[in-house]
Each structure stands twice: as C-alpha cells, then as structure tokens.
Design a protein that fits this description.
Length: 430
C-alpha cells in the first residue's frame, strides 16, 4: 500500500507552480461533450478525479486524445451511449456534471450517483429541482440518476442553498434549453465563472456568472473551442499554508491573486507576511503564528476546502482560535489524527475550539479525505520526528505530484510501498 513517509522540521522554501483547477476542469470536461466539434483544453491537472472522468467519457464514445500531460483534445461526435455506469465514477463527486451536459444536448442522461469525499451528507435536491424546472423528468433508481425531457424550456430558478454543483449543472442544461433561464442565489466560485467562460467560448450566451444571478439565453448549437483552465485556488492556498505551518518562505506561481483574497487575509491576520505580484504570491512566516477566528462560507468567503489547512496552522498558533464549518457538517474527522500528533482541539458540532500548542510530534496517521489529507501532510512536515500517512489515494484525487512539489520546496518526504522502504528513508534522512 502506498504511503508517504515524512521527517518534519524543515521550513519549506522556494517557488511552486500551481496547476489548473480540478473543480473547474471537471465541469469543463463534461461540458465539452455538448458539441460534436473538437474541443482543446489546456492547463488540465493530471490528477485522479480528472482521469476517472476522462475514462468514463471515453467509455461512452467520446474521443479523448492527450496532446501532452496537461492538454487534451475531446471530440464527442461519436457518443454511442447516454448511460454512464462506470463503477469508478461513484468515487468522484463531479460524475453528476455529465447529467447536466448530456441532458442539455441529448435531452437524456442516466448517470451513476456520485460519491466524492465523505465530509457530510451531500444532497442533490437543488440539481434535481433545477432540471425539473427546465421541464425534465428526474428519477433516482438503482443507484442511477435518470433525467429526460422532450424539450428543455428556460425557467426562473431560485436555489434554496448556495451550491456550486447545482449552479454548474443547471447552467449546463439551460445553455441548450429554449428561451431564458435565470438562476438566483447561484454560487460565485471562480470555477463557476470559468465554466461560463468556457461555454460562452463554445457559443453559449451566459451572463452574470460570478454574481448571485446568472442569466442564460439558450442556444440550439455549440461549437468547438480552445480553452485554458484557471489556476487551482485550493492547491495554491494549500502551499501558502504550508509556508505558514513550516515557518517557511514559499512563492506560489501561475495563480490569480484575486481568487485567494480570503486566504491571504487570514495569513496576514495570523502574522505571516504576504507579497503579491501579477500572478504570484509569496508567503513568509518568520514569526510565531497568532490565533484567529474563521468561518467557512461560499466564495468570496473563506473556502471550506481550506478549513483543514488553516486548522493545522492555528493548532500551532499562540492562543485560542475558533474555526466554524458552515458548509459541510462532517468536516472535522481529521481532528482525531491531528490530536495524535499533539494538537489540542475540541470539536463541538460544527465548531472547533483550538488551543495552540508549540509543536506537533510525528505519528502514524491516515488521510480521511482529499483536503484533510493534504493538511495532515503539512502538519507532518512541521512535526518533530517521523510520520507515515496512509490512504494517500485521497490526496492524489486533487493534488498533482504533491510529494514531488513538497520535496522541491525542501521537504523530507517520500512515496513508499513497504516497511522496508520506510526503514531505508529513515536511514537516509537520519
Ligand atoms: C464543490 C466542490 C467541493 C467544495 C464545495 C463547496 C467540486 C467537485 N467540489 O462541491 O470541493 O467543498 O463545492 O465549495 O467542485 N447542497 C444541498 N443540495 C444540493 C446541493 C448542495 O443541500 O442539491 C448543500 C450541500 O450538502 C452542502 C452545500 O449545499 O452543504 C454546498 O454544497 P455544494 O456547493 O453543492 O458542493 P459541491 O458542488 O458538492
């Protein structure tokens, strides 16, 4: 079984190139089946969730051609099935984006129900409500979502909760509906905007993405395009917090600083220095970290996908901090692992009360999900002694070359298979 073995203690120093945003790439790949012409997508991250989706798309007849590691050509002219049963798709949340895309273009979709990280119950009622408002019949049977319609017709849809997934899914289906759709209380995340820009580059007519009202005038046909995916806000934020936690000095490159404002603000509050240029941010942590309060919120609030990373930093900070999780109800599972490394955190409902401790100590831990897994690795990089991290398959879902990028920043980390490999690493780093 693959694990990371880590010896903590080195401040991480240097530059790190940030890849394309996984959560933008997933809907963009799905939406690319909405034309029969070829679509070229650049800055695609080479991570497991993306590769699982590409395999599922290829299995229904989409031609998928890798131009290079981060560029792909897709052509959906040869789609031969509107039923996506791929078992592996259950593991990724974004499988349901194929519903919006297939329903929009073919007025029919049958897709295996999504899984993704186990961070709370993840309802899809708003997706279903949106599809039904457009005139589709939607049922869930035998673990599949089935959506079909004679015609899709534009509608005025009010989302009861701010949902990234539902906003994206309904936006895709509405792109090829007859007439105008208005989505109110829509999500404003950068990846929602990126998908709208992508669809517009294919001939869609979407306005207002990035605000809480999106207006979509349906079109009957979309065409091919060349598109570059935005940088990954969460990958960048993770390395920025790695600088804070390890008392390091990291410059994240190829990013959009505007997307990172809530993260930058918290790093400044806890005592880091932050320098911004056009497409880079440098984070220097030379002082003792200070406590703060943070609540996760939809964009432009502090992202729930950065909650474990800031908790790992605050557990080392001076004083008492409070972290409130307002998006998912079960996102503190990793706290038990962090406690085993010496953290002093009490979780009450959706709130973590954190009394800063001076240091972590290495332990054998498991990654409970994607973002918490990455956060625990960062804790291990600051810990005294050795840590082994199991279940790194979760981390590989969303971070390209995680251990390699960390190693290049000076981390003592290795991907290992066996106990013998661990012993060899320990001998090597002493
Ligand atoms: C996406 C991201 C995930 C991120 C989350 C919030 C992807 C692939 N995943 O997940 O990394 O943590 O946004 O930024 O992009 N909800 C409902 N009904 C629905 C849909 C959602 O009640 O129909 C609730 C959810 O249970 C949750 C909240 O709305 O409490 C937000 O979920 P949502 O924004 O939909 O998250 P995802 O799109 O699943």
């Amino acid at each position: 079984m693959e694990q990371y073995v880590i010896k903590g203690g080195n401040p991480l120093v240097g530059d790190v190139e940030i890849g394309g945003a996984k959560n933008a790439a997933l809907p963009i790949l799905a939406a690319s089946i909405m034309t029969n012409e070829s679509v070229y997508i650049d800055n695609l991250p080479d991570v497991r969730d993306i590769n699982v989706l590409l395999t599922a798309m290829s299995n229904i007849g989409v031609t998928v051609k890798r131009e290079d590691r981060h560029k792909v050509m897709l052509n959906a002219g040869g789609i031969n099935s509107l039923i996506v049963e791929e078992e592996t798709l259950k593991k990724i949340r974004a499988s349901y984006y194929l519903v919006g895309a297939l329903l929009g273009k073919y007025k029919y979709a049958e897709v295996v129900l999504p899984g993704g990280c186990d961070i709370g119950s993840r309802a899809i009622d708003q997706h279903i409500k949106g599809f039904r408002s457009l005139g589709a019949t939607v049922t869930i049977e035998h673990g599949m979502i089935k959506a079909s319609a004679e015609h899709l017709t534009g509608a005025h849809i009010y989302m009861d909760v701010v949902s990234v997934g539902a906003t994206i899914n309904v936006m895709m289906a509405a792109t090829m509906a007859e007439g105008v759709t208005i989505i109110e209380n829509s999500a404003k995340e950068p990846h929602v905007v990126d998908l709208a820009n992508f669809l517009n580059s294919m001939g869609a007519n979407i306005k207002g993405a990035g605000t809480d009202v999106i207006r979509i005038k349906g079109v009957s046909k979309l065409h091919g395009t060349n598109y570059t995916i935005i940088p990954d806000q969460i990958e960048a934020g993770t390395y920025m917090f790695a600088a804070a936690v390890t008392k390091g000095d990291i410059t994240v490159k190829n990013i959009i600083p505007k997307h990172l404002e809530s993260i930058t603000a918290k790093l400044l509050e806890i005592g880091c220095e932050v320098e911004e240029t056009d497409d880079c941010i440098r984070v220097v942590a030379s002082r003792q970290l200070q406590h703060t309060h943070v609540k996760t919120l939809p964009y432009p609030g502090f992202p729930t996908d950065m909650q474990p990373q800031i908790t790992v930093a605050l557990a080392l900070a001076k004083g008492t901090s409070i972290v409130t999780e307002s998006i998912f109800e079960n996102r503190f599972k990793y706290v038990d692992e962090l406690t085993r490394m010496g953290a002093n955190i009490k979780v009450e409902g959706n709130t973590a009360i954190i009394d800063g401790v001076g240091r972590y100590t290495g332990a054998s831990i498991s990654a409970p999900d994607l973002r918490a897994g990455a956060a625990l690795v960062i804790a291990a990089l600051a810990a005294d002694g050795f840590t082994t991290v199991d279940d790194i398959k979760y981390i590989e879902r969303g971070y390209e070359d995680f251990h390699v990028k960390l190693h290049n920043l000076g981390a003592q980390i290795e991907l290992v298979q066996t106990e013998k490999d661990i012993q060899k690493f320990k001998m090597k780093v002493g």
